[in-house]
Predict the 3D structure of the following.
Amino acid sequence: MRAMVLRELGGPVRLEEVPVPKIGPNDVLLRVRATGVGLTVVIMIAAPGRVTAYPRIPGHEVAGEVVEVGSEVVTAKPGDRVTCHFYLTCKVCPYCRSGRETLCPEFRGYVGMACDGGYAEYMAIPAVNLCPIPAGVSDLEAAIAADAICTPLHACREEARVGPGDHVLIVGAGGGVGIHAVQMAKLCGGYVLAADVGDAKLEMAQAMGADEVIDARREELSRQVFARTDGRGVDAAIDIVASSETLEACVRSLARAGRLVIIGNRPKEVFGADPTFRVDPQLMLNRMLEIHGSRYVSLAELAQTLELLRQRRIKAIVTRTFPLQGAEEAHQLLRMNALVGRAALIQDA
C-alpha cells in the first residue's frame, strides 16, 4: 500500500510503498478514506518523545471503512464506516470508566505517534478506539470531527462552561480548531470575540458566526477586549495559540470569575520560544479567576460531535484538500500559518 512515512524527528513525510498492516485479535483494519491534517501533527512529529519508533506513519483524524476485524472483535464488522479516538488508553481505569479517558494513568500514546496512523491507504487500530459515523455525515466531515471539532466541544462545554450571553474570547480563531471553537461557543450561547492575525482567518471567523473579530496585530489584545466589552472583560478565554504572550493577554482579558482554557501547545523544542507564562496571584485572587487545561475528549463526546454534524448544527470547515502524497505540502503550509480552517487528505474509493 501507499503511505506517507516519517523516518526521523522533525523530518518530512515521504510517499513510500509499505506492507498492509496486520491486525491482532482485538484490532480492525481500516480502508482510509479521509484524514485531517492539522498543526497537532506538525508539532508532535518535531517534539521529542511523541513518536515512539521510526519509521512511523502519522495521522489521527481518520475516517474509513472496516475491511477486516480481529478474532475477538464483536463491536465492528466489515463495511462499517468509522472514525477513531486519538488516545490509546486502558479503557478500564477509573478515569476511562468515568469518561475522562484523557487522564488515563496507563496512557500508551497517540494514534499516529505510538502506532501507525491515517496517512496511508490502510491502517490498523484497536476496535475499542472506533466511533461509528452516522448516516448523512461524510467521510471528510467525520475525519475532521475526530479532533478539530470535538476538541472545542469539550473545551467550550466542560472547561469554559460557556452559557447563554457569556462573552467568549477565542485566540487563534481562524485555524483548524479555532474555527470550530467559534461555532461551538455560539452553539453554547456565547457572544464570541474571535482573535487572529490574518485577514483571511478573521473573515472566515466572522462568516462562521463570530460576533466581533479582533486583529491581534493592531493593538495589545486585552486592550481590544476591554474596549469591546465596555471595560468588563470576557467570561471565558480559549487560547488555541498558547504562547506566553497570548496566555498572559488572555488572563488580563478575563472578567471577574473568568475562565482561561488552554487548548494549544507550543513546545520550546519546536517553536524556539519558551511558552511559560506569568500569573499575578493578586489578580487571580481579586477576580477569582480559573485556569483550565483542556485535553481532547471522551469517546462519548466524539459521538456527540458526529451527531451535531448529522443535525447540521456544526459545519466542518476544510478549505484545502490534498491527495495522499500532498501531506508534506500541507505540513509546510501549516508551518507558515498559511491555512484557514482545516486541511485534509482525500483518497479515492
In short: Residues 161-293 form a domain with the Quinone Oxidoreductase; Chain A, domain 1 fold (CATH 3.90.180.10).
